[in-house]
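Exam revision sheet. Question 4 asks you to relate a sequence to its structure. Input first:
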Amino acid sequence: MKVLLLAVFALLSVVPARALTAAEQRLQLEGFPLVPPSVLPVKREIPGLKFPVFFAPSKDGFAPNLNFVDESFDAEWDAYLNATLENIKTGLKAEILTPAAVFELPSKLRCTRIVYRSAVTGQPVRGTCYLIQLTPPKAVVITFSSLPAEGNKWDAPIAESIRTFAPAPAPAQK
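Answer key, C-alpha cells:
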C-alpha cells in the first residue's frame, strides 16, 4: 500500500499554484498538529486520501511534494521499520542513500529517517521518508519527494516541519 501511495504522490507533479498561510496548512495527524514547510505552498486535497498533499512549483517536469499516511502494524517497531525499508527497496526499486537515522523529536516521539533514490515514470526521484512511532500499533509516515539534484536544498525546511509534530496541548482548564 505504501509503495502505491508513494508512486501516486510522485506522479502528481503538476498542480495549480496557490499560496497558503501557515494557519491554512496546519494539519492534525492522529491528534498531533504538524505545520508543513512554507516552501511547499500548494495544498491539494486528493480524493481517496485522508490527508492533503503539499507541493512546490514544478521544475523539470516534477513538483517536489510532501505526503502523509497513518498506518497500523502488527509487529514490533523494529520489525515494522525493517519491513518498510524492504518495501522501499523492492516496491520502489530504490537505492538507500544513507543508513536509517533514528532520533527523538522535540515531542519525545521516536522518528526514523530513510533517504533513498528511485525512479518514477523513468525520472529519478530522491525520497526522504520519516516514520514516526505513535502508541503501538500506529505510525505516521511522512514522505518528501524531489529531484535528486535538489534534494539537499529541501532537507532543512522539511526536517524543521517534521520537528513540529507534537502532541496537541491539553485544553485550558477553566
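Marking note for examiners. Residues 77-91 form the longest helix (15 residues).
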